User: Fold these one by one.
Assistant:
Number 1:
Amino acid sequence: MQESIQDRLDPSDPSVLSDPAGPSAPSVLPDAGIGLRKLVLHQEVVLTEAGEAPARPARRASVAAVIRNPWAGSGPGTDLTAEQLRIAPALAKLLTDRLVGTLGGVDAVEAFGKAAVVGTAGEIEHAGALIHTPYFGNLVREYLRGESIICFADTRAEAGETLIVPLWHKTHAATRSHYQTFGARVPDAPRADELVVIAAASTGPRPHPRIGDRLTDPVVTTETLEALPS
Amino acid sequence: MNVRKIVTLVEEIRSEGGRPVSPPARVAVVAAVIENPWAGEGFVEDLGPGIEATASDVGALLAPEVLDALQAPAEAYGKAAIVGLDGEVEHGSALIHTLKFGDHFRKAANATTLLPAVEKRGPAGVVFDIPLKHITDATIRSHHQTTEVRIADAPHPNEIVIALAAAAQGRPQQRLAPLSTEQ
């Protein structure tokens, strides 16, 4: 057991769901000015997988923010710009601050992803408005010092839905060892008029990556496969 | 003790019932997914040696982790043992219903009461609720609360999920009359 524990990051580091201002900083509005109901952190550290310790142990985390959907019940003619400009940058900062604090610093983050779940009184377009534009994506990329496009998942669902958030390498998206997913779930959200917005990250690859990479792949086409003995 | 992974969940509630919660209410859970010490051994009459080998270690692992995750003194706490489908609920109970397990948490949190618990058997991804009560007086009604946990890929049939939960306060908008008002 002791050996496995040493593989983990120092728990005295800026730790789980740490708010740089402290958990009860009086200057912070409880709802962060964006209708925030709660934040949920989920972190996993794999010590052994298939009976063996990973050569590079990774820490994976997601942070989910449950907010009021500012467009719930409005029609498809509604212009989403103003609220998007107001809310998305605040979410990008809030979620990445928590991720970086949890995972031991921005340099520890190697892979990232994003996601949103919209409640049933909203449109999937509302989820998109908060995660698919530069007001969220560019800022998350900047805060996490990435270069890749950020992969994503989104859905409309009842509270308690598990969303599988895809992650890939933050600077080299085609790095196959870093293709991985992380489940995010808030038991009591989203309510019909809420949105759950999620940022997720990993400090390393899958536990035992061994399916090669683009650099090692042979040429594979229908023609080359036909040449193989059947 | 063979640990496959450690899972941490932290909820920070900013509003409840449409009103702000300030300071935010925090609840943390840390779970260890471990191999069932009695996996594959059939019916083991004497669970003592397995308890001796595992219960204290897993309690020592989880107690500091859950307090780190909470980032505040714990006022309420609870525990869980969720046994994979090939084990007995008794195996989970064996690991958490011993002072060897709970004393690590009680000592770290300056607590005195027994930890309320959930024990059940289920497949990977089973949802379970951990009950929490006040750390020094289990009759303090404001601190009775529950937190929900799900680990998508645990427990495997030969595993047990052992978890500790801690809350930095009572329920977010607690406003029930204390027990003493009804006595």
Number 2:
Amino acid sequence: MSRTTLNIDLNRVEGDLEFQVDLDGNRVVDARCVGTLFRGFEQLLIGRAPKDGLVITPRVCGICGTAHLYTAALALERMAQLPVSPHATLVRNLCLMAENVQSDLRQSFLFFTPDFVHPRYAAQPLFADIEAAFAPMKGRIVRSTLAASRKVVELVAIYGGQWPHSSYMLPGGITRGATARDLMDCQDIVDRTIEWYELDVIGDSLDNWLALDSADAFFSWLDAAPHAASALGLLTRFARAIGLHHIGAGARYFLSAGSWHDPLRWQPPYGEPAGLLPAGLYHADHGQLDAFNPDIINEHVRHSWYRPYPGGRHPYIGETVPDYQPDTDRYTWAKAPRYGDKVIETGPLAELLTGGDQLIVSLLALEGPNAWLRQFARLRRTGLTLHLMKQHLAELARQLGTPHYLPPPAGALDQGEGYGLVQAARGSLGHWIQVTDGRISRYQIVTPTAWNASPKDSAGQHGHWEESVIGVELADPADPIEIGHIVRSHDPCLVCTVHFVGRAERHRYGV
Amino acid sequence: MATLLWLQTGACSGDTMSLLNADSPSIESLMRKGSIELLWHPSLSDTPPGGLGKLIAAIEAGTQALDILCVEGSLITGPFGTGMFDSYRGRPKIQIAEALARRARYVVAVGTCSAFGGIPAAPPNPTDCTGLQFDHEQPGGLLPPEWRSGAGLPVINLAGCPTHPTTITRSLAMLAQDLPLELDFLNRPRLFFSTTVHQGCTRNEYHEYDVEETVPGGRGCMYFNLGCQGPSTLANCNSELWNGRSSKPRAGVPCFGCTSPGFPRDGDLFRTEKIGAVPVTLPLGVSRAHYMAYKNLAHAAAPLRVKNREMEP
């Protein structure tokens, strides 16, 4: 069979995305994740006041601005070694949790499941149920998701004034402390969201669902009628019927910077990770968990349109000098972040593996990484997050009246360098800042999608998404829906990759 | 039923999130009751790859009618005027936006980026971007100042970073019914942009009596020291709450003036520039001498409950 190249543009991701794949017959033999839309956010920050990053960086991304805000505040706190009250960290976590729940729900039922309602699947036994639940903008689950995702971000508005795009986290705390009145509002929002999740998404109680701790327990749980008919049950049964548990493995190393922050451990000197769920690198093949080391994060530009440098560079010494070179083996505006020399996957699956969720660990051991498990882990995380939100509200009730903001001493933000890391909805997000004479002199952002959607590195290793589609057999190259399933299972956020977004073909930057 | 195409240019999807947050009317209710036929939305359409290209071609050829074109994101003209920093299938998005605008009855800039340039257009404007019909406050962006859509209107600027959720859905519903939409000097619909953010702020009594905070996190007014632009910014943030709950100033976050063409301003965003004790930028339309006289009296008149910050905003 002859070798052909296919250009695929995908929507229902955050931002635009184009994938270029080489086919041998119908089998994908090479892949290039290509993107453009240079917005130059880091350049906008140079010369501005250190706290301006709290206004500018949330605008990197409409769907995960709270994560950017949180990360930007952490970077300044580490830089100036500022203490933060537990009250503030609890509220920050709650807001990030609400944003993540919103994002996971919209990604699952507005972006991922619409691919199931495809004429190719009309003969599938579950197709009528799938259509009733997941038809775009009309399906039962789609409509209830629109309402539920709208509701849960009200929690962010209570503390931040609005979602998206607010700036209520400051180095040292938050702008508004919780009152008992807020708590009642937040409890109602969380209770209603849990009620909906139980009724529509899992068809069971949150406690029963979180107690499932093995693949066997899950598959027998799935046999019960209410579980099978739930959104998650339908998604699982259909995804497995069309073989999504056999495709889309990718990197096989999972990285998490640690989810949310422990209010008591997020304190100077900020030496150790303070995540509520542990940070680390999880090896898919033998289940080993290594400690997280942010010092070995580095970015390559060997296959990107930037001024070349050898190997990879840590974000503190990174450079971003555009250097467009068409007709070469460089193909994207994205850099290639690596963890040491490793290509990694980040996101909910990584978070739950490093966090020790036994159900997810067991499913991974059984079938390895795959597109269904990745999507399944996202909705599993929603349940865990809602459970933690309830716990947080109980703890916040005990913190009422304690300080929510500890003002930094004069001049504290005038000089230095620091970084912040959080688990955003799509995975590990890092900001690295340097401040000189009261002005930002360097700002580097490494987003979750930058990790997942990276191009090849200096050693020629493919990025994680590229790896996850290589080897896939396409039923119809004119309508490569398999690629849509795999790529969307990663919850791409192209607007977030900062250096690049958009649809691009290789030879079109005729500058 | 009005056909609608939503084009994302140099965007962050924040206005799309705002669209999804609108509850009354919601986008799904507008679609279900037949006001809006969504031809394309990057986050919501289930068209297979390449579908947008076919749709654009049909609109350009005149075989598909386009009633409302929504543009979200800055219009990127770089590098070197090619627009190729942001493209779809080899064609600059700015060219697509221009071609679709020519066919549309109404063109709506959703968000400050497509209205005026927004954050990506802040110095040093690394991508050479602009708004659809304004470049910051200067008339003329991607389209010239005299440009008019099929229905005879300039680009309708639903400014905001992001735009207020129901400002989007109500404006779309009005256009779908061909109701008149009166515009202000920046082509923003007066209905949503005639009051200041200051109006309705729950910190107003603190402002009234000159009880001003110097450190964030407190209950008082943020206008004199903490960079709040509420008194000089036209938007409905405090008269129609966000997410049905609150607004930034209510939550202790200064208004950054995100519906204005100068957003984001050059100065420190959390600090107020002042001449003497008074902000450089005064409440809209106020004379400095009168304002200073009023403020001198206000502080002396402040009741204790305000001075003691007893009110929770």
